[in-house]
Amino acid sequence: MSFVDELKSAVTPRAALLVVGVFALQLLFITSYVGALHNPKPVDVPFGVVAPQQQIATALNDRLEKLPGDPLDPHVVADEAEARDQIMNREIDGALIVDPRGRTDTLLVASGGGKVLSATLEAMITKLEAANQRLVRTVDVAPSSSQDFNGLSAFYLVIGWCVGGYICAAILAISAGSRPANRERALIRLGTLALYAALGGLGGAIIVGPILGALPGSVAALWGLGTLVVFAVGAATLALQSVFGIVGIGLAILLIVIAGNPSAGGAFPLPMLPPFWRAIGPYLPPGAGTWAARSIAYFKGNDMTASMVILSVWAIVGSAVTLVLSSVKRHPKAEPIAGEVGEPRA
How far is residue 278 from each of residues 40, 150, 259, 270, 288, measured CA to CA in Å? Predict the structure, then answer.
């Protein structure tokens, strides 16, 4: 057998296409992560301004609004109590409280929403105030746990849930061919995924809470969130595999890992990401899950509705597509996983 014949036998067209697909995913991975995270800088960070006199507040608001690069999106807030409420409701990420009777103003931040962002705000406002011969006292309204280094535990927790979701779905789908043969098999896969999601959600909540003490907040709430995250990612993966076959696994990785992880606001909160990643992050499971996990841990569960709706949409649409396509009267050949196309069968 010539080398060319041996090559054709060893590398089938299908295998070659899969390798090309993996190569493309590799380059997209590098592009996405480096593109999103190589040069973080704050842009349009929601920020409150409090001063006892409206004239002072308006003047300071205008000055912050005109900073080079538009790092802040300031607006005047009635008083310190209102500023604290808006931070806890995740409407703003910080606030400056001006004290005209002295030389020290107060900066409110929330490191629970991301330590990098709160540290950036502190450095920025301290520099601005120093230019006016004023000092800054920083108060952390929603401090992150001492066991939560850089506020990353919520992000890593959600990433773990996402990984479990798409790997479980991939295993279920390729165990007997990559497309559901019938509605019954699809229902079994979704039911198994739901059980796995409940167990995975509980396991993650217990590990980051009672075992490691990395995240405060309700274990039950984190359990519910984890169950939804795992099931949403798994259902989306099953749907993609129902439509595209084994290529759906790659598409799930593209959505969750390559697009979702760097845009989730984990390493750097959303206001510090480039426009593209900031725009897509909240609508992908890693971003929606990370936002909700931090809300549970540090913000009394506030401002979670949008994230929970997004995760629910992923779960419902994924399940619906999987069931609909499994009910269509078609009889495709199951794509072989262990063996290659063209191999002799016993």
Answer: 11, 20, 11, 5, 12
pTM of structure: 0.89
Q: Supply the DSSP symbol for 177.
A: B
Question: Distance between CA 145 and CA 179 in Å, rounded?
Answer: 44
Average pLDDT score over the chain: 90
Token digits of residue 232: 């949403």
Do the beta carbons of residue 65 and residue 46 sit within 8 Å?
no
Distances (CA, A) of 258 to 61, 106, 251, 280, 313: 38, 40, 10, 12, 20
Closest-CA residue to 267 (of 30, 29, 71, 33): 33
Cβ atoms of 193 and 168 closer than 8 Å: yes
Tokens found for residue 132: 């006016």
Under the banding of pLDDT at 50, 70 and 90, the label for residue 346 is very low
CA–CA separation, 344 vs 154, rounded Å?
Answer: 49
Identify the CA nearest to 208 among candidates 160, 253, 264, 257.
Answer: 160
Alpha-helix runs per DSSP H in the chain: 3-10, 13-37, 54-65, 80-88, 115-131, 153-174, 183-206, 219-244, 247-253, 275-280, 285-298, 305-327
